[in-house]
What we know:
The protein is mainly α and 458 residues long. It is 55% helix and 0% strand. The longest helix has 22 residues, at 101-122.
Amino acid sequence: MIRLTWVQPEDLVGHELRQAAEDGREVTEIAARWHAAGGHDAPPRAGASPEAPPVRLRRLAEDLLDELAAVPSPLPEPSALAEIIAACPQWPSQRGTAVSGTQAMDRMLGAWLGRAAGCVLGKPVEKIPREGIRAIAEATGNWPIRGWFTAEGLPAEIGRSWPWNRRSAVNSLAENIDGVPEDDDLNFALLALALLERRGREFTTDDVAQLWLDELPGGRVFTAERATYRNLLAGLEPPGSHDPPALTTATFRNPFREWIGALIRADVYGWANPGDPATAAEFAWRDARLSHTANGIYGSMSVAAMCATALVASSAEEVVAAGLAVIPPDSRLAAAMRQAAEDARREPDFERVVDRLHARHGDLHWVHTINNAALITAALVHGRGDFTASIAGAVAGGWDTDSAGATVGSIVGALRGASGIPQEWSLKNRLSSSITGFDGIGLDELARRTLALATEES
């Protein structure tokens, strides 16, 4: 029997209970009923329990998910764009920066190459916890991390304890890298590029949904994106002013709505708006609201603003400030990013910075937005524009390694330009993808097409 992950009602209740604890909802009585009936807590790393439950438990799960959706959060974390802007006293003015020429191309190519390199670095150790990443790196003479992961010279007992987890991970090992292997962290960037090329700057959330249905098989998206896909096929509408909050693609039985999925989709919205973090954040909001709410949306907006700023800025601190300016300062995400930045400024040993991040956010799922955004912030501030130190820090942190590595890589790559990325992180100019029209495309062609979008606006 197929146990499809991330959509079974009985597997969602535990995740929704954990989400309720995070956003301040009182659901003790609902949790007690669930546990008394034999329901389980959220799996710490997986998406589904191994066996199908009794029919009665599935029916109870459906009822409890609806009850949980009706319990409001007391936190001041809006999802509507006008309310988000109103909550941001430092919301930036809309002002693009004219970009063209060799330097602009170098920085855009640096952004694409940086995203690819950070993703490839983090892919082999995705789902491996922090202690396993260090054990692998130390055993192969790569600690502190300064190059691609490798299986060559890895003791058998270490490999058994912390196995690479899928074929694409093996394709990201130093001895096997042959171009950029396919990954969802890169496919979503390609989708955003296709969206802007096909629909233009006035694209809507409905356009994002249609592109997903056209280009993304449901089995190749996960967590919030898979729940959203299910909701689209069930006939639910993307969020809009006419929709009750519990009946949108983002909120209906989607306990992953504050996880990292929207954040990894944001970079191109920033690259298309160099020097204009406000517009970049708005573009990201239109995309993110399809599948996410509150901090899930803020993560996407923040990264888009940082990517827009990185193309014209001179420091990682300037970039982080831009990311914080477009999210509500009283939100959990803003607090986590501010504290991460402060730790990174004060503590010279990045491992101690990560110790503090895990102490504060270790109870969150490894693909949640808040912990990963805090790690991204810390890696940027501590790395101070050093490409290797920045992506290595993001990956060594041990949460969503390929996603955090990709985002940090794209930002520092844009700051430094492709010419400023050390040669050891070079990749063959070929990217694999199942997105129509992109398989085998060169990073230079992606940079050229993205720069064309940015140049059109400026």
